[in-house]
Structures
1.
Amino acid sequence: MKWLTGNTKEILTALNEEAKLTQVDNQKVEEQVRQIIQEVIQNGDQALKAYSKKFDQVTLQDLSISKETIDLAYQRVEIEVIKALEAAKENIVSYHQKQKQHDFMDTEQKGVLRGQLVLPLARVGVYVPGGTAAYPSSVLMNVLPAKIAGVKEIIMVTPPSDEGIPDVILAAAKIAGVDKIFQVGGAQGIAALAYGTETVSKVDKIVGPGNIYVATAKKQVFGTVGIDMIAGPSEIGILADEIANPVYIAADLLSQAEHDTLARAILITNSPNLATQVEKEIVRQLATLPRKQIAEQAIQNHGRIIIVATIEEMFTIMNEIAPEHLEVQLTDPISYLHEIKNAGSIFLGEYASEPVGDYFSGTNHVLPTSGTAKFYSPLGVYDFVKYSQVTYYTKEALADAKDAITILARKEGLEAHARAVECRFN
């Protein structure tokens, strides 16, 4: 891992320079995705099948996954896995139910009623990645908040393969309550959800992670539909002092490094001794890690150990990084909660290991990355509703407000606005 030392300004400058170097011009991908989206708009299901043959080497007769196929997949999954998914579902539901918001109405002014309606989206699309790894936990994290919000129909798309969709993915979809599943992936899957085809219904919003083609497609269809966020590589930041356990810290850093060779793992500490122990422990743990090649490359290229003098500096730097996952392994970690300004998901204490949030605590693991925690939030129930404002005035109430309204309208040069109010009193 690369070490950074110095004052706060010097360290932040170094991190900003590193961030600039990792920015990639993806104009080629942008154009490829644009062409795929146009092809799907023009040719619908035919385009989806052609791209499945081209990109996935699968010839499809039917894009949809039948209920019978889903039920059989569920039955083939080990009972302990089903039980773990059900337990995770219970925690996710209990946490996200507390995010529900409700309508309100107020009558504070005589003759005036103001309010807000909280309305669920009608139809949502969930993208589930394919490839070498299957993430049933992500199915639960994306689908259950939508169900709690009251979304009427949830459509899942996932890339096809010769071996079929992994049983555990279909089982998780059944447990979460997905309504329809289609075996279509990549940018073409996003295009199908955004614009609809003969088989795939157009949705109101698309959520779920994917590769650069999926992320680019989501960015390009935004505006036609809503999206959750543009997710980058996974990342973890850990704040630790001299009492922290280096074994735990190394394990948690590697838990994110094994996701992707571009994953970021960052330790900030005021203890050079701890930093040295953590680095040694990472080497030891890497030796037996099944995904060693991925994790080792991530640690070497994007792993950072930052040494500062004070805890205050630790928080200043980490708040600027705004990590996707933030662990606070300091003495009395809860007392520092309000020092945290920017983080996707916060884990307090040495036993709140980040994977607890990935799988079981009930907090969502769909999180803002690449510093976007400064203005984005974790996926939640609030992502699957929209708000409509309500206004009611009596004639008497409008009479009281008439002069202020017409003055402002004419100040802005909008005479028709002023007349629309005045005509009610002529």
Note: The chain has a mean pLDDT of 96.
2.
Amino acid sequence: MDVPVSFLDQLFNERVLHDTGVDGLYARSALFEDVISRFEAFALSFGKDEISESMVFPPGMPMPDFETSGYMKNFPQLAGTVHAFCGHDRDHMGLLQCMAAGEDWTKGQKATDVALTPAACYPLYPILARRGMLPEGGAYVALQSYCFRHEPSKDPARMQMFRQREYVRVGSAKQTMAFRETWKQRGSEMMELLQLPHEVEVANDPFFGRAGKIMASGQREQELKFELLVPVNSTSKPTACMSFNYHMDNFGQAWNILQADGSPAHTACVGFGLERIALALFRHHGFDPDAWPEGVRKVLWG
């Protein structure tokens, strides 16, 4: 009996992705990157007349801002920090001896002032806070960043290093809630144009520990997070390819982002998992974009 070939192995066999030997860390082909760039252009066409500015962030963020975000409190199992060699000549010799002997050489590494960015919108909030009070209309920012989450997996849609394209709305509760509802509708419209099966469901983040279960329950009850799900690696467990989040004034208070009236700002974001959406397109339309449905090609290639 033939053993089914996993979707990940198909991606490797077709050279869409390339194995590095570490689960969730893959080299990407030019074809894969082309699909992502075309989807980004498609996504940006929806909100281009609404944004106040655009930003692209590196995959690292300042440690103090990372700590202010509360990520270590809620998701320590996913976090990553940047460590580096900070020793002298003698320490270097010891490091080389450990490597030569096949021993652990990382014990001499020390934390730097950089953490790996876990969510694309996090670096934005301290920038807005440093500017002072928001204008009357708040802020509406398009941004992109590489992100890191420590969850190695054979599921190609669960990468450790991945990109998020986001729109972030910062302002009043009314402004941010209206933004999220608009993007929930747009998200479904986008998936229909790409001819991808999908559903939008209330969701929760993977909060850590016993207290995290209570937080996750509260998040679902308040309907603070919705996800747009598409079958990618599994039909029984579809993948979150977009998320629609309302943070209330949590980040406004954490970073002291103030509205024009002096009250803490509310925030909301819509996030597109760029690698996940590309994988969904390959999964449902095949590995040759030239053979994709004409309607999909028109959306992405014009």
Note: The first strand starts at residue 17 and ends at 22.
3.
Amino acid sequence: MSKPVIITCAPTGGIHTPTMSPHLPVTPDEIAAASVEAAEAGAAIIHLHARDPETGRPDPRPELFLDFMPKIKEACDAVLNVSTGGGLGMTREERLRAAVATSPEMASLNVGSLNFGIFPMLRKHSDWKHDWEPAFLEMTRDFVFKNTFADLEYVVKELGHGHGTRFEFECYDLGHLYNLAWLIDQGWIEPPFFVQMVFGVLGGVGADLDNLQHMHTVAGRLFGDDYEWSVLAAGRHQMPFATQAAMLGGNLRVGMEDSLFIGPGELTTSNADQVRKIRGVVEALGHEVATPAQARERLGLKGADHVTF
């Protein structure tokens, strides 16, 4: 029997802007409510970003995270995973502020630099709620999302060694798997490794099934039995790729960070709806959905009683 499928939900992220959906969680209360609802729907892990509650712009301030993380922790048992990707254009130190302040069980770590282009979304809107939105998107036409080897070493030692935080290693391309293997070879991280394969971001690996199969094969060769793997895909590819991951015995991520839609041309009204939809697919395939306790055990997490929020 295959292992229960770990569902991660990323309720807001740092990519989509408020104009794109009236349902995007922005305020701390909205992020908390969306996270709890997603956990109740079946998400074992909640991947968290914060936003300025007035403008919706991605915001690294720890006080914003500390406004919603305790509320989520009190209301559910989900693993809280703090982003170190932050918002595009933030410095390395800004991106780490919330994770350092909260010492979470898990944090994301982007394991390679890439051109990260979200400027094509400019074509879909002309009337913007906030002045920062079109400038933020346009900026990515000439932008490199920087994650050098020095950055990776810094984050692993600061959070992993300093706080006992485990990582969701986000791999946007084949080479990122080899970057992760390099980190392992240095002896800086220990198994089990949680590898999140990311598809469909302009600048990263395309959302083609052959790419998923190849990255899965290479990861298996590099990491053997020492890793858990998961898949997320941007936009319209979200549900098909999540389904493929479940069919191949992997784990998966959904949420409004990755897609604002529940079906073709239909905005999702909540993150929980996306979780419920993919949970139905997973269970229809004959798989179980992992509980937070099962996720903690499989990923070797330190437990919710060893955080600082």
Note: The radius of gyration is 18 Å.
